[in-house]
Amino acid sequence: MTDAGSERDVRATTDAGPERDARATTDTGSVSDARATTDVRHARQLHLMRAASALGITVHDRMPELGVDLVIYRHGAKSVPVLEGRYDHELRARDFFLTEDKHATKLLLSEAGFTTPRGFAFAFTDTPASEGDDDLPRLTAFATEAVAALSANPAADAPALAPALAPVVVKPRAGMRGDAVRMDLVTAAAVAEHIADRRHLFRSWIVEEQVDGKDLRLQLVDGELVAACVREPASVTGDGCTRLAELVETHRTAVAAANPDNRLVVDTETQDLLAAQGLGLDDVPAAGRAVRLKRTANLAKGGVGVDVTESLHADFAPWAASVADLFGTRILAIDALCAKPHGPPTTGTTILEVNTAPEWVHHTFSRNRTHDIATRVLRSWFDL
After folding, report:
1. What CA–CA distance (Å, rounded) separates 184 from 161?
2. What is the three-class DSSP state of 209?
3. pLDDT single digits (tens) 320-352
4. Which of 38, 105, 215, 319 could bridge to 297 as Cys pair (CB 3.0-4.6 Å)?
5. In what order do the strands lie in the sheet containing 58-61?
């Protein structure tokens, strides 16, 4: 078992590292990695194409002939090829694969003095399971050790009580879009079961402490903090007369209209959450009652972004820039949990991950304030 807080050698967790295979699928069987899709125009690319036209930048769309979302932007003597609106000519393999590996990213951040969740990494030796496979006993032992290590201490004033187990988060080491992420697990059996059931999707996994706080996304361009939003999990509010199924459909339509990549699906996670709240899709929530539909604040699964750029504490700008200095890319985003976005980042801010090919479209329709990130990105590429 490898602890991100103490282990310095990423190779100690797995010889092969995290998945690089774009064929990984979600629990429902759909392709989880956009790099594997064809004939799909991504929202990021559409925003870039529109902004380029406004800036007088030539747009050469290669999608009709190649079948992939590739656009070449030209201005003067410079050309910038961009795949899916996020993979550009300056994105180095080192930075992309480092940040795609969540465990390696945490090691780098921890060594640089930033706070990250305590966690442990596990990798299967074979995928899928082979005959005589000894990975499942090893997984059980790993889950037991990880949950015990991350558990809360027993209450000081009640030594006779059994220790309360702190909830943990289980996630793929190199997952995207929140695929296969599960929160609020408190037993080793639940952790092992979640991982074992999805070993055909991801070979390498992380179990880490569940940190409370607001889900903060910081967007940087050329080391400058240009936008910040708090991400909220998909939810609806009852009005006392509308069925929950209709409220969910209204929310699904609204978020998809703003960003086609934001897809709310009523799946097992949603059904379990509704059951825990004593509700079904045919029920009518009381007026003002908030009904949670997803555990995580994922903006690809029905979540919403609330802009906090203007209220964000001023110290976040240099703090975020120092994170960006660890990576050699112009476009970067930081995902963090913090107690108070209006407070300094040095008190209660935990970095979850860093994205060197980030999704930024949500800043163009976030509540409170919107941002033209596409124009900022193009100006950066062409030094305008």
Report:
1. 21
2. strand
3. 999 999 988 889 999 999 988 999 998 889 999
4. 215
5. 58-61, 70-75, 78-83
Structure tokens at 221: 């361009």
Amino acid in the structure at residue 258: A
For residue 157, with 0-12 CB atoms within 10 Å meaning exposed, 13-18 middle and 19 or more buried, which class applies? Answer: exposed
Q: Please tell me the distance from the alpha carbon of residue 209 to that of residue 3, in angstroms, as a whole number.
A: 11
Amino acid at 377: V
What is the rounded distance in angstroms from the CA atom of residue 321 to the CA atom of residue 225? 7
Q: What is the pLDDT of residues 224-243, one digit of tens each?
A: 999 999 999 999 999 999 99
Backbone angles phi, psi at 264, to 5 degrees: -90, 120
Per-residue DSSP letter, 250: H
Secondary structure (3-state) at 145:
helix
DSSP state letter for 371? -
Sheet holding 349-355, edge to edge: 304-307, 224-232, 214-221, 331-338, 349-355
Q: Where do the domains of the chain lie, and which CATH numbers do they carry?
A: 2-8+101-209 (3.30.1490.20), 214-382 (3.30.470.20)
In order, the DSSP letters of 63-96 are HHHHSS-EEEEEETTEEEEEETTTB-TT--HHHH
Beta strands in the chain (DSSP E): 2-3, 58-61, 70-75, 78-83, 119-123, 168-172, 182-185, 204-209, 214-221, 224-232, 235-237, 290-292, 304-307, 331-338, 349-355
DSSP state of 346: T
